[in-house]
Amino acid sequence: MPPKRRKATEPSTTPAPKRRSTRASKSTTSDVKSPIPKIDKPKTPKAKPSRPKSGKAVSTSQATQESTNTSNQFTTVSITHSSLKNSILCQMYTPSTPTPSSLALIFTHGAGGTLSAPAVVNFCTGFCTTNPVFGFQGNMNLTARVKGFHALIEHLIQTHENKAGDLVLGGRSMGARAAVMAASEVVSSKSSASNNVLLILVSYPLQGPKDIRDQILLDLPADVSVLFIIGSKDSMCPLELLNGVRQKMKAKSWLLVVKDADHGMHVSSKAAERGLGEMTGRMAAEWVGGRNEETEEKIWWGGVGKEVKRSKWEGAGEDVNGDGENGEEVKTEKKGGRRKR
């Protein structure tokens, strides 16, 4: 009888089949994070400066202090006016010891420049030794720059800054052209409350690309006084050409020549540029205080101590090119002092 086959014994426990792990199998529901909803912050509308509702070209103006320069040289204010689309930035230079009779100057920079241009800063620093300066920032639009003058004039009238009633307007390069145009409009206006208008024109751009910009100067009436401050090497205002225009002008004019200075009032060194620039400002303020009968003077940088030298006021046409240093020399102090004869 054949032997019986034994049954294969099954293992008591069968190992669970191995599962292939994948990236998907590792993720669980606990790993899924619910998106955090975005919370929009409420937008706060920017406050716009209020403007007068009056549609007149000359209306009320507002001044608000924004910041003060650490050098205590000027204060920055914002002026708004009904004739302006935007407020204009103004830097107020105040003398350390102002006097009630000190007339304030409204001044603006050249085309493409700013109030921080060295020629502007140096001039205003010198002028504010005795008189206040309101320098305002503008764009390259000549008409808009003229409106800026009117806004500042209205501000001075309302704040009683021009106690003497006279107006002193000025600028350099394109700003000088705008000052002339604003002065003509003020004089022709019957509502003008000012007695006299004085003009300080630094680096007036008489020679344009295509023509000579003399007509607005010739249109100035006889009761306007004009001070030209021109570099002897200014290609945009040749002195011979300027003196020819001055002879035709109805308004009386004075000329201060800065020897070796170009249109930007640049000279040999920064020290000379600053010294001459500040001296032009001091001499302009001196001119505002009282005009000399003689109409031409010049300044230069030189001497043993390398400082500003100035001649006496002379008659028209003497040393027209400003090349010489002839005439009676007037000694000057290095820092803002009065001249000594």
UniProtKB/TrEMBL annotation:
This is KANL3/Tex30 alpha/beta hydrolase-like domain-containing protein. It comes from Zopfia rhizophila CBS 207.26. It comes from the Eukaryota. Residues 316-327 have a biased composition (Acidic residues). InterPro entries: AB_hydrolase_fold (IPR029058), KANL3/Tex30_Abhydrolase (IPR046879), NSL3/Tex30 (IPR026555). Coiled coil: none annotated. Residues 104-270 form the KANL3/Tex30 alpha/beta hydrolase-like domain. Gene3D superfamilies: alpha/beta hydrolase. Residues 24-37 have a biased composition (Low complexity).
